[in-house]
Amino acid sequence: MQCALAAAVAVTAACRLDPLVDDLPGASANILPSDAQVPSVADNPELVSQLMYSDGLDSAAVASGVIPRGTGLSAGQTVRYWQFGAANRAPAPMYVFGTGDAGDGFQPIAHLPLVDALPGDDEYSPVHTVYRVVVTDRYAGQQITTSAALDDAVEIGLVAEPVATRSFVVRPIVRPGLALDVGGAAGAVAPQPLYARGYVVDSFELGTRFGPQPNPIGLVPTTEVSWLRGPHEVSYDASRPIFQATIPTAPPQAKPNYAPLAVVVDVDVTTDKNQIVSDAQLFTRSASGAVTRTADLVALFTVTTTTLVLQLQFEEGMP
């Protein structure tokens, strides 16, 4: 009797050597079906408050519902720009979904780009490192709206591992309901949606006339912007910035030819500041952009610890 029982147990154990279910997981509570209605961040009062406090916009300036342009000078020419507050050089990831491969064969699909963080989060930056996420043949329109959902999608085989493109784009996230002043016939343009933390959020992709900027070193480069103070004046004039950066006229090559991060330099001048229209009137710079000499009209200058997102407008009527 005991021998028969032992034999039966052995047979049963042998039958259970194969898995009872497929080794590949097939479901995730974090991934939404293709027909799910993803809520707008406007439906979350707490996050709206966070955006209003942290998106870098002056609430009084955007009270009309439009993000205004500032006016400055670059290389002797009047330029328009948008300001989105302070930032550091570390970009935040943005995941773009597509088919093909992560290289030249990549074809974006209708899925919205995904970011990890919102303004007010420690990891947020208006400048985003671009990652390409290739969907597999198991993908059927599911919506990946959080970082956890992306992790699950990789695990269950809906998408491949994200691949860094070593490039960046400027795409600030803003409080809901704003348009962007671009001038020209367009006047103002509506925001572009992103997924972030399970919500649809508003953003503006800026300065991509020639596509994303290469970013081989990982950190976003900076230039300087000068705020001037003339003789007998009390304050530095932030309303008439003198940009070291210039508007690019051709696509970048191995290195970026534009970045929106500007380190503020307070400059005391000995003449009427309104006569100064270019960085070259203030400084002589090395090939790397470092100041090697000041002009005679510069009495004093101080490189501050403030780095701002000051995005030059490349073309009238375009973001």
DSSP summary, beta strand count: 20
Distance between the termini: 84 Å
Q: If helices are DSSP runs of H or I spanning 4 or more residues, what is the number of helices?
A: 3
What is the 3D form?
Answer: elongated
| Order of secondary-structure elements | HHEEEEEEEHEEEEEEEEEEEEE
What average pLDDT do the residues reach?
A: 92
How large a portion of the residues is in β-strands, by DSSP E?
35-45%
Measured as a percent range, the helix fraction is 10-25%
Poorly predicted ranges: 1-24
Would you give an account of this structure?
This protein has 319 residues and is mostly beta strands. It has 3 helices and 20 strands. The strands form 4 sheets. Strands 4, 5, 6, 7, 8, 9, 12, 13 and 14 form a 9-stranded mixed β-sheet that branches. Strand 15 (223-229) and strand 16 form a beta hairpin. The protein is elongated and about 70 Å long. The N and C termini lie far apart (84 Å). The relative contact order is 0.18.
